[in-house]
Amino acid sequence: MPAAPGLPGPLIVQSDKTVLLEVAHPQADDARRVIAPFAELERAPEHVHTYRVTPLALWNARAAGLDPETVVHVLITYSRFPVPHSLLTDIAETMGRYGRLQLLSDPAHGLVLHATDVTVLEEVIRSRRTTGMLGERLSAEDVVVHPSERGNLKQALIKLGWPAQDLAGYVDGENHPITLADDPAAAAAQVPGAFALRPYQAQAVEAFWAGGSGVVVLPCGAGKTLVGAACMARSSTTSLVLVTNAVSARQWKDELVRFTSLTEEEIGEYSGARKEVRPVTIATYQVLTTRRKGVYPHLDLLDAHDWGLIVYDEVHLLPAPVFRMTAGLQARRRLGLTATLVREDGREDEVFSLIGPKRYDAPWKDLENQGWIAPAVCTEVRVSLDPGERMAYATATPEDRYRLAATTDRKTAVIDRLLARHPGESTLVIGQYVDQLEEIAEHLGAPLITGATTVRERQRLYAALRAGQVPTLVVSKVANFSIDLPGACVAVQVSGSFGSRQEEAQRLGRIVRPKEDGRQAHFYTVVTRDTVDQDIAAHRQRFLAEQGYSYDVVDAADL
What we know:
single chain
């Protein structure tokens, strides 16, 4: 929806590539939605949010089919003041860098780097970053690439500011028939167990397949596993699925049996407990990165079989050794699934170059408005340290201050009051520090899940929460990812991994699965006032602010 005539726009676009969004403007939500594909949120205080237009965001937008004219039109349409001409020129030139170099498959010479601009090819050939990756010069526009360097070259090129468009194709992989067990008619008739791809899921599958490799970004609870299953059915080849932990592996197996023609015997688990290699193999990042005497004995699983598709669940968590091995897997189709492309280590460009560009992205609020995920209310509850704690905090070393502030006993009373607000509702109490969580679990008389809890016990407790047999679970960061708890509708966060934006999003994601009765989800983060806990909370909330969520701030005394 364009800016209304006579109404000043909600954006201020500046020459330093920052874009300011007036939150209270009647068109703020429209503007936020249309700039999200090419701008990244940096700061989100109450009244004005600051976005930045980055090269990587522009290249992702270009790979997803957005052209420079559309980006320029959006900024001009919603800007309150004239957009600096230098910025518009820079946007067009930056987006134009994507695709000037292309990786192609040549019938005579194999893998070839082709340039639509000869001067760019000359620049990258002479760069130290590409040393040893390129072979014979075939013409002014073409140079041979060593097949084993396909991934490393793409990494080098994006560092040089010339991201390559990979059109070299993929090996077919070993054939293994897989069909999706969807039944739209039965699903429409609400037959128990029947399902159909939702429109955005079908669009995600089509966008991925058209691009060949890349990342699908969907909110938690929006059915990323089903998108993965549909892509596997489309491929109908042997497939490798990489997941965060053994609980996630078992969940993937259950859902693949439910959603596809695959049987349990066709699906293997490759984890710390089991080493099964079958037509569809589900492996954990943890076992792949197990190191013995300086080597990773299990990483060979990635390339020792003729996989037609490799699925990276929670791709934003991809460990460095898997990144390195993925550089050698560029001839295989790769699907990354995530709720957020934010990586706290700043390696988003490696996801772009090694897994692939963002192929599909569904904003959280769009799916909420369509009823596919539950509406959520986010609240920051602030507590104060008592005088003794305040003095201990003031005299502590900087590295100890966050833990002191985050684990104050004052938060326990807040948890009691929040649970009293939601009697009978399935609730997660989530934190970072095990000793803090042990005390809270004992106080509440609630079960506790940590990294030390066996996989079987975790599954039992999650099932008990789903069935309503356990009203409250206290969980550590092991519950951040890939856990399906459709009935959970309240989460209370007491501490976290410092300023991790993706962790905040994942924790909200535990409770936004759509509820049968249409209830809202409630996400509370309990923060200690005037400490680094409060500062870190503001950073953690940035990604959700970008998705259109706002936090109400209340004092613990007012609950």
